[in-house]
Design a protein that fits this description.
Elements: E1 2-8, E2 12-18, H1 21-38, H2 51-58, H3 60-83, E3 92-98, E4 103-109, E5 113-115, H4 133-145, E6 149-152, E7 163-173, H5 182-191, E8 193-198, H6 206-212, E9 220-226, E10 240-254, H7 261-264, H8 271-305, E11 307-309, H9 312-331, H10 337-344, H11 348-376, H12 382-393, H13 401-409, H14 413-433, H15 453-461
Antiparallel strand pairs: 1-2, 2-4, 3-4, 5-11, 6-10, 7-8, 7-10, 9-10
Helix pairs in contact: 1-3, 2-3, 4-8, 8-11, 8-14, 9-11, 11-15, 12-13, 12-14, 14-15
Enzyme class: isomerase
Catalytic activity: [protein]-peptidylproline (omega=180) = [protein]-peptidylproline (omega=0)
GO molecular function, one term: protein folding chaperone
Length: about 475
């Protein structure tokens, strides 16, 4: 069998395969038997008519047509083995070049190739924002707010600072075009939206806060406020906004004293010690955010500077997998993927197509990181796996640890190795991005640690 190969873009190989004459004739013999089974010939039992009778009855072209599928499938399998080609997806038949001799051409996807960028020259600064006293106070306020008790008023009274108001609220921003008729405008105002407002000066625009103070249940008021220049909603900064408010209910907010907060959040220590812990937690969270931002920026440059040759089937398979993950998430809420697709008015294939850009990005990141792992010689030792298992067990109750430890050391051991390798990869990338010197590769690799897709992609999914 003669096979001619040609390397094509997107990790495809073109195979032109010419089947040997003997193999071709054997294929026609088998095709003749199948035709004899399908269409019995007078005077012969099904499948027993000689080939020359079948060929004379149906014609040689029909015999070749019947043999074509088997000829192609069998020859393709032998060609892959003969040329020692690693295939990662189904072949596609391009054409049948000739019937006699029987020559056909197929394209097959093969593993991607990656030409890694000079990843050690990529630099990204680590920008850790300082934690301010205001940030600590806001977090403490948030914690205290979780333990506020709402109490109905014993007797009706006007709203005062500290109350929670249930209001019907509609807004109109200065400059917004209003083409609605007076009737439709009145209907819109009547509809409004029901909101919960806490009467605290630092939570509401000053004019709105002052206007709500003293209002009674059932009272309506129109309040005009000028939005501050640093308002979170950029489009309304410095603009006048008209609030149309109807008070539906008033509740008294019973806020715990600051001294009670440590006990309410199950913290053993004083309020000052709780503040110190909150600051440390915020600093740790900010450090993690900065490190993730550094990693994301580094990976973006790494992918941009790396050359990839990836078969489309690899990206599409990942897109299918991503859609399957979404399907499982929908199922938790009793919703099927078909219902979602029907609601959106798209087909399954269109949903996969929408995921292709993200699937391509993830594939490139995975491939690039796998190459970095190889280049850096990152591996995991048995001692590191054991240490990670002990760290995981520390978060569980004593009675659950023996059973969990057995699972972590057996069926979940490779997953633990992946976690360890991921940590080492993230640490190494951070060192490279900051321009720190490289450490020597590990000396005692564990068999569980290999550069898998899960390991090299996890660094991009955490935040």
């Amino acid at each position: 069998m003669k096979v001619t190969t040609e390397k094509l873009p997107k990790s495809l190989i073109s195979l032109q395969i010419e089947i040997d004459r003997d193999q071709f004739e054997r294929g026609l013999d088998q095709a003749a038997r199948r035709l004899s089974q399908k269409f019995p010939i007078h005077g012969f039992r099904p499948g027993k008519a000689p080939r020359f009778i079948i060929e004379r009855t149906f014609g040689r072209a029909a015999l070749i047509e019947e043999a074509t599928e088997d000829l192609i499938n069998n020859a393709y399998k032998k060609a892959i083995q003969q040329e020692q080609i690693e295939v990662i997806g189904p072949p596609s038949l391009e054409r049948i070049d000739s019937l006699e001799p029987f020559i056909f051409t197929v394209k097959v996807p093969v593993p991607p190739t990656v030409t890694l960028a000079d990843y050690r020259s990529i630099r990204v600064p680590l920008n850790v924002e300082p934690v301010t006293d205001q940030m600590v106070e806001l977090e403490l306020e948030r914690m205290r707010e979780e333990h506020v008790i709402l109490q109905e008023l014993d007797e009706p009274r006007p709203a005062q600072q500290g109350d929670r108001l249930r209001v019907l609220l509609s807004t109109k921003v200065e400059g917004d075009e209003d083409e609605a008729s007076d009737e439709s405008e009145a209907e819109s105002e009547a509809a409004g939206s029901e909101e919960q407002l806490d009467l605290e000066p630092n939570r509401l625009v000053d004019e709105l806060y002052q206007g709500l103070i003293g209002m009674n249940v059932g009272e309506k008021k129109e309040i005009v406020a000028t939005m501050p220049d640093d308002h979170a909603e950029e489009s309304i900064r410095g603009k006048k906004v008209t609030f149309k408010v109807e008070v539906l209910g008033i509740q008294r907010r019973i806020v715990p004293a600051w001294e009670e907060l440590p006990g309410l959040v199950n913290f053993t220590g004083t309020l000052d010690e709780l503040k110190a812990k909150v600051r440390a937690d915020l600093e740790e969270a900010e450090r993690r955010r900065a490190e993730q931002a550094l990693l994301n920026a580094y990976l973006e440059q790494l992918v941009e500077q790396t050359t990839f040759d990836i078969p489309d089937v690899m990206i599409r398979d990942l897109a299918h997998s991503m859609l399957h993950d979404q399907e499982q998430q929908y199922a938790r809420y009793g919703i099927t993927l078909e219902q979602v697709l029907q609601y959106r008015g798209i087909t399954h294939d269109q949903a996969v197509d929408e995921l292709l850009p993200e699937a391509e990005r993830q594939t490139k990141v995975t491939l690039a990181l796998s190459e970095v792992i190889k280049q850096e010689g990152l591996t995991v030792t048995d001692d590191e796996i054991a240490a990670e298992i002990e760290r995981i067990l520390a978060d569980y109750e004593e009675e659950r640890r023996p059973q969990l430890k057995e699972m972590l050391n057996t069926q979940l051991r490779s997953s633990v190795a992946n976690v360890v390798l991921d940590k080492k990869l993230r640490a190494r990338l951070a060192e490279i991005a900051r321009g720190e010197p490289s450490a020597a590769p590990d000396a005692e690799p564990a068999t569980e640690a290999t550069a898998t897709e899960d390991q090299s992609s996890r660094a991009t999914t955490e935040s």
